[in-house]
Design goal:
mainly alpha, 16 helices, 3 strands
Length: 338
């Protein structure tokens, strides 16, 4: 599946974003103990649609549209917890096993109905319709059972990771509003994860059983959203104008994250002096934040100041030698300059 996905899906190869979503996945399983999916492999797909999916083997695909649709990290974590639960409970494998068990008797029933219809029996066509409907309903019931279980198990993973359980029904409620807005053209998430009033009520009822907690710091989440806005833009100049507009109007959750996105957009538009100025201001207030250090070095690389960039990377890696994104960026810079 992953070989096919890499050929046909627009998978984002960005060290900072990949490190962020991977850390979220590991956080969800950090207190669960040894599991078959202790090592989750999360990957980002450049796609504006709201969706996420799990694949046996510990792989979870996340559309960039989902990250932009969530209002905070807890909501994003709730979706990832749901998908992680699909993996830990082996839902896809169990669904496949159920399908194989039911396929032979189902096929026999369908053949019998076709024979009845072919012999001119009045109940033949009705039998075909009934058999087909029963097969579809059984599959639907099986899916609903798994969705309910994934919600329940996922909520436990969510709270163990330090998030407020109420984030899950909150996201479901907003997605349900999409049902009315989109009508027949539903987002992929709503087609693959049907959200009903009953499901929201059940998740709401479960969430209040957990103590209310203050969600973890969302600094990395808002910076990830800002980076995705830059990567999702079709025109760098337009993206620069977008960030400039939001900063002027104050329409943002985190000013620092919005400034970071603005610097990234300026970098993509080759406005290196302006990008450098913004990052220097951010570093003056947050000298140890690795995203700003990486951006500072990348600006110098793009501007052709390779020696300066490598010195910046070397100093940053010396302080944080185990940082995945920082190390990968430094290694890439060395390969580009040697």
């Amino acid at each position: 599946f992953m070989r096919t996905a890499r050929r046909h899906l627009d998978i984002i190869d960005d060290p900072e974003l990949n490190a962020y979503i991977q850390s979220l996945g590991q956080r969800l399983l950090s207190k669960r103990g040894p599991t078959a999916y202790q090592d989750l492999h999360l990957f980002l797909i450049k796609d504006p649609s709201i969706n996420a999916f799990a694949v046996p083997g510990g792989y979870i695909g996340i559309h960039t549209g989902l990250i932009l649709a969530t209002e905070n990290e807890a909501e994003l974590a709730s979706v990832l917890a749901h998908e992680t639960a699909h993996l830990t409970q082996r839902h896809l494998l169990r669904m496949n096993a159920e399908s194989r068990r039911s396929s032979i008797p189902a096929m026999a029933a369908l053949l019998a109905a076709i024979l009845l219809a072919g012999s001119g029996h009045q109940g033949g066509e009705a039998a075909i319709a009934m058999t087909t409907a029963t097969l579809a309903q059984n599959q639907l019931n099986f899916t609903r059972e798994f969705e309910q279980e994934a919600d329940r198990i996922g909520m436990g993973l969510l709270t163990q990771a330090g998030y407020d359980a109420r984030a899950m029904p909150a996201f479901f409620e907003r997605m349900q509003s999409h049902t009315r807005l989109y009508e027949s053209n539903l987002p992929e998430f709503l087609r693959t994860h049907p959200i009903t009033t009953r499901r929201i009520a059940e998740s709401r009822d479960q969430s209040v059983r957990y103590p209310m907690v203050i969600n973890p710091d969302t600094t990395d989440f808002y910076h990830a959203q800002a980076k995705i806005h830059v990567l999702s833009g079709n025109n760098a100049a337009d993206t620069v104008l977008r960030f400039k507009s939001t900063l002027e109007s104050g329409r943002y959750q985190s000013k620092d994250a919005e400034l970071y996105g603005y610097a990234q957009a300026l970098l993509a538009n080759k406005q290196y002096a302006e990008a450098r100025s913004i990052i220097q201001d951010l570093l003056a207030r947050h000298p140890d934040y690795r995203l700003y250090r990486i951006t500072q070095a990348e600006i110098e690389m793009a501007a052709g100041n390779n020696t300066t960039a490598l010195k910046l990377y070397a100093a940053a890696v010396k302080k944080k030698p185990n940082d995945y994104a920082l190390t990968q960026r430094y290694a890439t810079a060395l390969l580009r300059t040697e």
